[in-house]
Amino acid sequence: MQTTVLEVDPDAPAAAAIEAAAAVLRRGGLVALPTETVYGLGANALDRDAVGRIFAAKERPATDPLIVHVADVSQVSTVAREMSAVARALAERFWPGPLTLILPKQAAVPGEVTAGLDTVAVRVPAHPVMRAVLAACGCPIAAPSANRFSRPSPTRAAHVRTDLDGRVDLILDAGPTPVGVESTIVDLTASPALVRRPGGVPVEALREVLADIAVATPAEADVSVGQVAPGQLLKHYAPAAPLTLYQGARDAVIRRVAADARTHAAAGERVAILAPEEDLIELAPLIAAQAAGGHVITQPVGARRDQARAARELFDAVRTVDLPRVDRILATAPDDTGLGRAILDRLRRAAEGRVISV
Ligand code: TXA
Ligand code: MG
User: Ligand 1: which residue has its CA nearest to atom 18?
Assistant: First the structure.
């Protein structure tokens, strides 16, 4: 298949590009398109053959359910049986936006979308391009992140092309996505409501609307959820080189990362360090010789003082250091608050258990 790429203005997308995307969706094809979180790989959610093509293109296991995107809250009833008062309150506050609600499934949604579950993940996205395509096609759009399975999520059209060129009909390129981490997933079929994946809406903001909300621990998300959210598996977002995550008191973490980088470099490895700007400034004098020799490279992930920028830059930073000539990636943990919780979650998954507490 030949993949067409159309550039679109993120704020005022041209009607021709939107209509082209809607036409592909109506005939059962695949369109990669920007949402405010990450690029999604979209298909008509009510067309089971089209949905099957998503799994084939991504090489995603059929046991991993998809998120269904709808144009507005009034369309939720086409895919979910009911919206509780709590669901309505969360929708009212956070939609359109990076929040996904797990609700009882409507029969019209093919089992392929939900991996056979009786629940469906739904969100109303905020990106003007995604909203325009939803309005033009008139159908709910099932869309996982537009990456190959177990690759970092795409925040730029170039990431989508790297992973899916020749596997999708059309890519709408609207530049980098503004949030950068995926939506927060709240399971409203659990009691109390359960955050299954931290994301673009911070847990602190959810609690302002709903005080009684639990957060799945990484261990719970990994083991006990099983079939319910296999996308929560630890082996996810993994770059090719092993990534080790360092957490603990900041000064101690910085000294330990520097020491380990020097040790690996001395052993002939090429090391990449992923960290917020503030950490890289303190690391610089400790690894100056190794950096000058080309044995250690550094890649900023936003800044501690600006979590939104850190979230926006995270996946691009991971892809940037994921090079054949990098043997090892060392990352410092962000603060575990606000958007930092989502960033930490993605780094933990990328680390696949290689976490050093200093
Ligand atoms: O921001 C986002 O959420 C992006 C954009 C494209 O909307 N989408 C995204 O989709 O991240 P994906 O497929 O990469 O992640 C969806 C997650 C998976 O971990 C999946 O297991 C979970 O949602 N999920 C979907 N339906 C579910 C359900 N019925 N119950 C529990 N988890 C569900
Ligand atoms: Mg994904």
Answer: 231
